[in-house]
Design brief:
Helix 1 crosses helix 2 and helix 2 packs antiparallel against helix 3. A three-stranded mixed beta sheet has the order 1-3-2, covered by helices on one side. It has 89 residues and is an alpha+beta fold. A hairpin with a 4-residue loop joins strand 2 and strand 3. Helix content is 47%, strand content 15%. The chain has one domain: Metalloproteases ("zincins"), catalytic domain (Zincin-like, 2-Layer Sandwich).
Length: 89
């Protein structure tokens, strides 16, 4: 488990690496999602992400940050997501 501050720092570091910096990072209870990205560049994560293993947490962070650049799950989003995830392995 990581603290909220450690998690937010991890998000900021990854955001800088992939050039997709959010305006704000939030952590709260969510019923059905691990994360979401608003048009105003606010990234929200479910509290449960703090308990995830490092690899799953990074995958969720990268996924949401890429929505700052690609709003939907189209071909370009999936191609770039796969590229970043393959670098993590």
């Amino acid at each position: 488990m990581v603290s909220k501050e450690e998690f937010k720092e991890q998000v900021r570091e990854i955001a800088t690496e992939i050039n997709a910096v959010p305006r704000q990072i939030r952590i709260r209870n969510m019923k059905r999602k691990i994360g979401s990205c608003s048009p105003g560049k606010v990234i929200t994560f479910n509290n449960s992400i703090l308990d995830m293993c490092d690899a799953s947490r990074k995958e969720a962070i990268i996924h949401e940050l890429l929505h700052l650049r690609y709003r939907n799950h189209g071909k370009m989003f999936n191609t770039v997501l796969k590229a970043y995830l393959s670098r993590e392995k």
